[in-house]
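Worked example 2:
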Amino acid sequence: MAVLNGEVPDCVPVIPQTFMFAIENAGMKMADVVRNPARMADALIHSMDQFGYDACVIDFDVVTLAEACGAKVVFRENDPAVLDESDLLVKDWGTVASLRVPDPWNDGGCPYGWRPPASSPSAWVTALSSWAGLTRDPSH
């Protein structure tokens, strides 16, 4: 919390990006968490508690936003989702200008996992905590 409060921490914070490890470590599969943010939070918290991370990166799908723009996505049992390369939405640079802006409340996988919170750090913490159902003491 020292860093979030603008203070110098007593040690270097450890914040690994371990989503695939966390899923496996919690005995889950990618398919268990890809449309279930609460399950993903459970996996991340399990690893944080087991290994003592200071925080974690909440990231498990790099194609959700592409799907919200209209791209076709292939969801896999044990691996992260990927774009369907047989039917790409963006075939050349000229196509980019025609992309629609996604609505994070309704388009693609956004309603399942990503919601844009307010811009302040405390609003992000509140939004992520309620999104994941967290009740853990943030000073831990």
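Residues 62-120 form one domain. The CA atoms of residues 34 and 60 lie 7 Å apart.
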